[in-house]
Amino acid sequence: MTAYVGKRLHRFVSAARAGALTVAVLGLIPAAVSAQTTPITIKMATLVPENSSWFLVLKDVADKWGKISGGRVKVILYPGGRRGDDPDVVRDMRLGGLQGAVLTSVGLAEIDKAVYALSIPMAYGSYEEVYAVLEKMRPRIEASMEAKGFVVVNWADGGWVHFFSKSPVATPDDLKKLKFFLWAGDPKSLEIWKAAGFNPRPAPSTELITGLQTGLFEAFSAPPQVSVIARFYEQAKYMTDLNWTLMMASTVIDKGTWARIPADLKPALLQAARDAGSRLQAEIRQSGEKDVEAMKNSPTKLVVVPVDAKTRELWQKLAESTYPRVRGDFVPADAFDEAMKYRDEYRKQHPAAPAPPRKQ
After folding, report:
1. Taking residues 143-149, what's their average pLDDT?
2. pTM confidence score
3. Which terminal residue of the chain has fewer beta carbons within 10 Å of its beta carbon, N or C?
4. Strand, coil or helix: 358
């Protein structure tokens, strides 16, 4: 009797275990299938206006990521500042509301201020100088950003930043008289501008046009490409013919989201993103003069304010006078020193030819 009961109990337990195992396996199958069929959605924000040439390049990359992945990676774009200014977007990514972004140096600096080493005012004389320094510093910057939860998938830029104003600005003193828009969120930058004698007014970039219309701002800085795309110049028709700094940009993806993408897809996705970055770089370089001409020939009739060699020296002296504070307060000291070291090395190897004057 005892043996019989034991055998029945053994069969019952075995059957129960088999049933439990079957249930467990069957329970896992939907999860596995779901993991393979449910796309990884990347909500990506950018300040780039919808249907601009920049946006079309981004949309092309989003489409390519979908095709390359066979629909396993889906990118949804939010252009035109719909998800807020760059600092807002970075905060949203940290909270999980967004998984990607195309950020200017202002947004990238919310992650790691070392990126500002590529945007030191009047420290660089050409695209080639900036990108030579970027290539040297890129591993360090990208590793730091990844450690903070962001994966860089490409680099680009928005072109050389110029001053746009409601009245002509040729000299630093001309700009000091005006209410100058400054991107909000960096009190150290605000202090540096004030210490140099300017009248900065911090605000989100999404409030720039309204501020120009109401008189809150009388001047701002932006690349011609940005000004023409966003139509900022219509409220400030004078552009100073001076390359102040290069506006850097980069596409970043949340590290956790990037980790979920199958390893076999990543090389092709990265290549598509980097190809797009190269396309944007080339387009920006080629479109600078065309964008200026377009603004000059518009109903607003942009006026380019010339800056002669003597006046340019005034701007250079002003910019360099801020470097002791820029180094440390605006750019981490080690990143500042590293960037200047690589810049000087590049200049020794590539003596600069004088730039041709801009057509007035």
Report:
1. 97
2. 0.84
3. N
4. coil
